[in-house]
Design brief:
Layout: H1 3-7, H2 15-79, H3 90-94, H4 97-106, E1 110-117, E2 122-127, H5 134-137, E3 146-153, E4 159-166, E5 172-177, H6 189-195, E6 201-202, E7 206-207, E8 214-221, E9 227-234, H7 236-244, E10 252-256, E11 262-264, E12 272-273, E13 281-282, H8 291-300, H9 307-313, E14 315-319, E15 322-332, E16 338-346, H10 347-350, H11 352-383, H12 390-398, H13 415-441, H14 445-460, E17 464-470, E18 476-484, E19 499-500, H15 508-511, E20 519-523, H16 528-532, H17 534-537, E21 545-553, E22 559-568, H18 579-623, H19 630-647, H20 660-671, H21 682-685, H22 698-721, H23 726-752, H24 759-769, E23 772-775, H25 785-791, E24 801-804, E25 813-815, E26 837-840, H26 843-847, H27 856-874, H28 885-889, H29 912-927, H30 939-951, H31 957-965, H32 968-976, H33 988-996
Helix pairs in contact: 2-11, 12-13, 13-18, 14-18, 19-20, 19-29, 19-32, 22-23, 29-30, 30-33
Length: 997
């Protein structure tokens, strides 16, 4: 619709939207009003209820205070008139114990009854409840129920403290003298108050001297005036009342005086405020560390907000991110002093029920709206019967024509036809997306091709189909998949021939490959294509069906293949291919072509990657003629062991399995496990003798021996020419030659490195090395720049010069450059003992190697190949499924006890594939026959060595047992070992040690 036409019409909305909007708006408006009114009234009712509850708490607390103080006050009044006031000694005062006990029994909240005399004497009776901490503090006997604390003063004023313990019947259990009990009642605040008044006095809360409890004292002067009687009442009971009155978890209740000292709190242990180095005191409201009580104290300290103003209307506070509601009530004690009870509750908790009712009401209203929606929808559909013009517009959706907008010129939409069209559109798009997703998810190329063909056959309702693809060299159109719709398995594509693309007389299918849209051709017995499609068509009658040819194009619109769909004629003459279906097939073919192209690209990249891996492995094997095939044999053996672990039905590997991606990861790691050897010099890898470098320096040593023999012969003839005894001199010459020959033979044998060299052999080598020979030529002529630089570390000697037969010279040592150093805190975690020199080719240093042919520096260079392997692989951007390749490939020289290299990993730090490769690498090395420094060992010899390595925690015990029990060693031997190496093996011989352990 044009903008001019749209502006000439009122705003267009479907009729059901008008009805539904009005209906839902009315429901929401009325429901919201009812819900809001209910919420407001419920909130008001709950706040009123809370105010009433605040008042009841205050009344209950006041009544409890009255109940606590009144019996105690009566008891103090009676005690002031008793004979106890006239008693002058402890014995006389003990006569009043029965009376005092009765008072304690009648007043369970009393902590103690006492009397203080003007002369400083003091007499107190306190109960000792069963679980009271006072029993342990006073070391009371087990059956003690009462404690008498007495202070008597001698004539000179010295205090005599005595503690007496009584049972429930006032039988004396023990009497303790307490010289450290120096309590003087004349210094206590309750006596000072009582002396100034005629009636009872109430002290402010304070810390009791003996029990160190916080409480209050009621006291009065006796009738004679010679003493003051009193009773101690702890504040714990009042706190208990407040704790019982806490009606919500977040409620705060506190009883405090006009100095804001807290007298009672639901958590009485917080009443005392302790400061280091000072006596404990009563905490202030703000010192309870409750934000609302701190803010309340700050408000109350404002003269305009004293408790008298707050108790009638209550208060609201914003504290700690919450709104608090509460009241402050004034409680008048018996001595006329006011106490204040503060009650504060979070408004969120107070109104929780109101909010819950409101939310339930909202949900109910929402449910009513949802229930009304389908009814409104049905009513709207019945009203919209007269609007039919939308039916024609739905055809555009069926034809995948989304470019043109729907031309509607009415204010009411025909809902029924629109819903039908939208439903068809959704189902079509959904099916297209489902098929596209299924094709994109398929990773196997051959299965993808069959899936493309099967999905297209199902969509087109065709009876058979053939998928052809352009070959990689773009010379042929090759059959890739063929199937019948009702058949479970595809047809063998070898029954079809490839079609050349450059044929001067192209095949009819070739002529259609450049088409831009699907083509429909009649399928009859006379059709030229019928013969080619015979495996699909069988015997056809005249005009028996249709052939749909769908070209496949990639993103660059280049032909990549085609689909040939066969639709046989049915009894229904109208059974054909509709334009809508043909359009959908064309759209699906585009997605199929992209999926096929992606899989071909991925397949090509994998093949290229695999080729690079094998190229690198082959280059490593080709670098040394003595290790050829190692990089190929280790993967085979590792995979055999991994397969055995996957098929294990019991033992530690019964639940082990590898996914297809993990198999690929293992495959890549195996083939690249020695890629670092590309950096190892060939002469080090192939070093067969101790003096070998680029060449074997034994030839130089032999020449020196030859020089010594010639020198001996020349000396002999010179002596003969000087009239010496020829026969004797000739005999001496033969003996010298024989000695030199024997010494050279010994040096040559040491050079081979076949046997262990003990201290005796080393000493003889050094003795032979002390022989000298005369050099008359400059040894710095004709050298390379690098070697000349090393020689310049020592000054040149004038010719001729006498040199030792064998020596370790400065030029034999190669300095280690920064690029050859591995720092301790390297990013790869290598932990290697690095030699000082890069190479030390000293002749004595080399010949005195105790085992093998490699010096320590050369052994490090050999071991360094795994370092280079890890560094090289770590720098490769492996995809996530292959991220463990460096770890697996770089762990085959680690040992289970943490003594391996290059990271000294323990068994628990290594993955199972890495431990598998370690066993494969060792077994392959032991049995290989292409090493220059050893011959291949037999099966039994190799397994014997590996059993010892298992005992020494060099290889994994469980994997070695699997290696034996599964017969992997035998499978590998039959494929790669020489017949002479495959001897008889009894695996029990190598498992016995394991069982003994």
């Amino acid at each position: 619709m044009s903008s001019r036409a749209a502006s000439s019409l009122p705003r267009q909305l479907p009729l059901h939207i008008h009805i539904a909007t009005l209906f839902i708006a009315l429901i929401l408006l009325l429901g919201g009003a009812v819900i809001w009114n209910s919420y407001v009234k419920t909130t008001h009712l709950m706040l009123h209820t809370a105010d009433e509850r605040f008042k009841r708490i205050a009344d209950r607390t006041a009544q409890q205070l009255h109940n606590l103080f009144t019996p105690v006050a009566i008891a103090v009044d009676l005690l002031a008139w008793q004979q106890l006031a006239l008693a002058t000694s402890l014995e006389e005062r003990l006569h009043s114990l029965p009376y005092l006990r009765e008072i304690l029994l009648q007043s369970e909240h009393l902590s103690a009854l006492f009397i203080g005399y003007d002369d400083g004497d003091f007499f107190l009776l306190r109960p000792l409840p069963v679980n009271s901490p006072l029993r342990a503090a006073f070391d009371a006997p087990e059956s003690a129920h009462y404690l008498v604390q007495s202070v008597e003063r001698a004539a000179v004023g010295a205090a005599i403290g005595t503690f007496l313990f009584y049972d429930a019947r006032l039988n004396l259990l023990r009497r303790d003298a307490r010289p450290d009990y120096v309590f003087d009642p004349r210094e206590r605040p309750w006596r000072q108050l009582a002396l100034g008044r005629t009636g009872r006095v109430y002290t402010e809360p304070y810390l009791f001297f003996t029990t160190r409890e916080v409480g209050a004292t009621l006291a009065r002067r006796t009738a004679t005036g010679a003493a003051v009687v009193g009773a101690d009442l702890t504040l714990h009971e009042i706190s208990t009342v407040l704790a019982a009155s806490r009606f919500l978890p977040g409620a705060q209740l506190a009883l405090f005086d006009d100095r804001y000292q807290v007298i009672a709190y639901p958590e009485p242990e917080r009443l005392l405020y302790r400061v280091k180095g000072q006596e404990p005191r009563l905490a202030l409201l703000s010192e309870l560390k409750e934000p609302v009580l701190t803010d309340l104290e700050n408000d109350l300290r404002d003269p305009s907000k004293r408790p008298a103003q707050l108790q009638s209307d209550g208060f609201e506070l914003e504290s700690a991110g919450q709104t608090w509601r509460g009241q402050v009530k004034t409680l008048i004690t018996q001595d006329g002093k006011p106490l204040y009870l503060a009650v504060a509750v979070p408004q969120s908790e107070l109104l929780a029920d109101a909010v819950r009712i409101r939310n339930q009401s909202v949900l109910i209203a929402a449910g009513l709206v949802l229930m009304a929606l389908p009814i409104t929808w049905l009513l709207a559909r019945r009203i919209a019967r007269h609007l039919k013009n939308l039916v024609g517009e739905t055809a555009h959706i069926r034809h995948f024509q989304f470019q043109e907008p729907i031309a509607v010129r009415s204010i009411i939409t025909e809902v029924n036809q629109l819903a039908e069209a939208m439903s068809l559109m959704k189902s079509t798009i959904r099916r297209f997306l489902d098929i596209s997703a299924a094709l994109a998810a398929e990773q196997h190329f051959e299965r993808l091709l069959d899936r493309v063909l099967a999905e297209t056959l199902a969509l087109a309702q065709a009876d058979a189909g053939l998928l052809l693809l352009v070959s990689d060299d773009e010379r042929e159109l090759q059959p890739a998949a063929a199937r019948l719709r009702d058949e479970t398995h595809p047809i063998n594509i070898t029954r079809f021939t490839a079609l050349p693309l450059a044929d001067p007389m192209p095949h009819p299918l070739i002529q259609e490959i450049h088409a831009t849209a699907p083509q429909i051709r009649p399928l009859t017995a006379s059709e030229p294509l019928t013969d080619y499609l015979a495996p699909l068509t069988g015997s056809l009658t005249e005009r028996a069906g249709q052939l749909i040819i769908v070209p496949l194009r990639n993103r660059q619109e280049e032909p990549v293949g085609m689909l040939a769909l066969l639709k046989f004629q049915s009894a229904d003459a109208s059974d054909g291919v509709s334009p809508e279906l043909l359009a959908f097939i064309a759209a699906l073919s585009g997605a199929s072509a992209v999926s096929i192209e992606n899989q071909r690209l991925l397949h090509a990249q994998k093949n290229l990657f695999e080729a690079f891996i094998r190229l690198l492995a082959d280059a490593i094997d080709a670098k040394s003629p003595y290790t050829g095939g190692h990089c190929a044999r280790v993967p085979e053996l590792t995979k055999l062991l991994a397969q055995a672990a996957c098929t294990a039905q019991e033992g530690p590997f019964c639940s082990f399995s590898l996914s297809a991606v993990e198999w690929e990861e293992l495959h890549v790691a195996c083939w690249l496990h020695d890629c670092g050897k590309i950096t190892t010099p060939e002469y080090v890898v192939d070093k067969a003798t101790k003096l070998e470098t680029i060449h074997d320096r034994i030839h130089e040593v032999r020449m020196r021996f030859e020089v010594l023999k010639r020198d001996a012969e020349i000396a002999c003839w010179r002596q003969i020419a000087a009239s010496g005894d020829a026969e004797s001199l000739q005999a001496d010459l033969q003996r010298q030659w024989q000695t030199l020959d024997e010494e050279f033979a010994f040096i040559a044998g040491c050079n081979q490195g076949g046997e262990f060299m003990g201290p005796e052999q080393v000493a003889r080598v050094r003795q032979i090395a002390e022989r000298t020979w005369l050099r008359t030529l400059d040894d710095r002529l004709g050298l390379s720049h690098e070697e000349l630089t090393r020689k310049e570390h020592a000054p040149a000697q004038p010719l001729p010069v006498v040199e030792p037969l064998l020596a370790d010279k400065p030029e034999h040592r190669f300095a280690r450059g920064p690029q050859d150093c591995i720092e301790p805190n390297n990013p790869w975690g290598f932990r290697l003992s690095m030699p000082e020199w890069l190479y030390d080719r000293g002749e004595l240093h080399s010949l005195c190697i105790s085992r093998g042919t490699l010096t320590g520096e050369e052994r490090y260079k050999i071991n360094e190949h795994i370092v280079q392997t890890i560094i090289m692989l770590s720098r490769l951007p492996f995809p996530k499924p292959l991220r463990r390749v460096p770890e697996i490939a770089g762990g085959h020289h680690e040992k289970m006890d943490g003594t391996g290299y290059p990271k000294r990993l323990h068994r628990e730090q290594m993955s199972l594939p890495a431990r598998m490769m370690a066993i494969a690498d060792i077994f392959e090395a032991l049995t290989a026959i292409d090493r220059p420094y050893k011959s291949g060992k037999t099966l039994s010899e190799s397994l014997q060595i590996m059993a010892r390595m298992r005992d020494e925690q060099h290889i994994d015990t469980a994997l070695f047992e699997l290696f034996l029990r599964s017969g992997v060693y035998r499978q590998y031997a039959e494929r790669f070992l020489q017949p002479g190496q495959i001897d008889e093996v009894h695996i029990e011989d190598y498992l016995a040690r394991e069982r003994e352990e």
